[in-house]
Write a structure and sequence with these properties.
By secondary structure, this protein is mostly beta strands. It is 12% helix and 44% strand. The strands form four sheets. It has a seven-stranded antiparallel beta sheet. A four-stranded antiparallel beta sheet has the order 9-8-7-13, with no helix packed on it. A three-stranded antiparallel beta sheet has the order 10-11-12, with no helix packed on it.
Length: 222
Amino acid sequence: MKNLMRENKGWLLFLLLFGVFRTAIADWNPIPSGSMRPSLLEGDVVFVNRLAYNVKIPLTDVVLARVGEPRRGDVVTFSSPTDGTRLIKRLVALPGDIVEMRDEQLIINGQGASYAAAGTAMEPLAHAAPVAAQRIDETFDGHRRRIQVIPQLMALRNFGPVTVPRDQFMMLGDNRDRSADSRMVGMVPRHLLIGRAERILASADIDGNWMPRLERFGMKMP
């Protein structure tokens, strides 16, 4: 064993450093579901900056230092407060914000987001025919993102008002009617934040012919 380690110490050091890099500095995150459609698609692989908010002990949620503040509109990877599953959603509300939703309209601190129609698309369903989705540009506090809603589906379109606790954040999927987000899993404590998604590294049509979607390579996070 000693001889094996001695002969391969360069490779072992590389693996160690690579592991530290992925667990403490930067990572990539495949998108497995459509909860962030249309911003992110199944088959996208996003680059995640793990040092955007916290420095952590590798492989833990122990925060050693805070290095940046989460901002409204960030696309964030985090561990689910309910079962630890890694999720990716958009941060919509900060600690102290009072948030509610009325018939899909997001309202923060008494100010409602504004909405503009941006077309339609067909939303694929696992065990049923596709349904029509409405694409909408949602603008709040000067930040605009494209979301979609699906009127034909049963969904949680009203909640709150709720106050976001100290050191916690509210996350919503851009695909509002098909996202298990803070409406279901609750607010996300800061120590469960993994990092900020910066851009799409690569993308492939995993539900079709697996052809690369070259136009998405290198795209900044919308």
